[in-house]
Amino acid sequence: MVTLPLVYLVQIRTASRNDLPELEWNGEFTHFRRLFADAYRLVERGEAIMWIAELPGVGIIGQLFVQVNSHNSTWADGDQRAYIYGFRVQTAYRGIGIGSRLLKTAEDDLIQRGFHSIVLNVNQDNLAARRLYERFGYQVVAPEPGVWSYIDHLGRRREINEPAWRMEKQI
Fold it and tell me: Is residue 1 part of a domain?
């Protein structure tokens, strides 16, 4: 009997509303509960796509969000340019191709939708993620201050300062 590598057992699919609690990864990202709900509202309005990687018997082990329309047209303009964000794979499943499959799925979908470029921001300290993006053809085009805030699950505003690189790829 042939055993498939783990990466091929993972199912890549779009998220449903029922997936939102599992995106919190057993409490690790509970503070992003409202962000996940906001992202799903964008999906319902046709302004975003939420991709997830699910391992049968385990659950959601990866995610990648795409904003196709944004108030910041440098990131997403609803027509030519889309913005990838919220991209993560659980630590135990990194380095085996799941992130690559998520990214390839999102890119292929955006090509089908007629987009011509993809923008993303990568934390300046996240060299592994930057290497992944560079392997896929993304290039650094500008620094991003990475200053943003959100309201956590308890209603508190959290301020974030994550200097990043803006990367782009023509598709």
Answer: no
Read off the CATH number of the domain in which 48 is found: 3.40.630.30
Report the SS3 class of residue 71. Answer: coil
Domain that holds residue 10: 6-170
**Residue 119 near residue 166, CB atoms below 8 Å:** yes
Distance CA 17, CA 37 (A): 8
DSSP assignment string, 92-155 = GGTTSSHHHHHHHHHHHHHHHTT--EEEEEEETT-HHHHHHHHHTT-EEEEEE--EEEEE-TTS
For the chain, what is the domain count?
A: 1
Annotate 63-89 with b (16+ C-beta within 10 A) or e (fewer): bbbbbbbbeeeebbbeeebbbbbbbbb
Q: pLDDT per residue over 7-56, tens digit each? A: 779 999 999 999 999 999 999 999 999 999 999 999 999 999 999 999 99
Q: For residue 147, is it within any domain?
A: yes
What is the spatial distance between Cα 20 and Cα 43, in angstroms, rounded to a whole number? 12
Is 132 in contact with 96 (CB distance < 8 Å)? Answer: no
Q: Are 163 and 140 in contact (CB under 8 A)?
A: no
- For residue 67, being part of any structural domain is answered with yes
Distance (Å, rounded) from C-alpha 55 to C-alpha 68?
Answer: 27
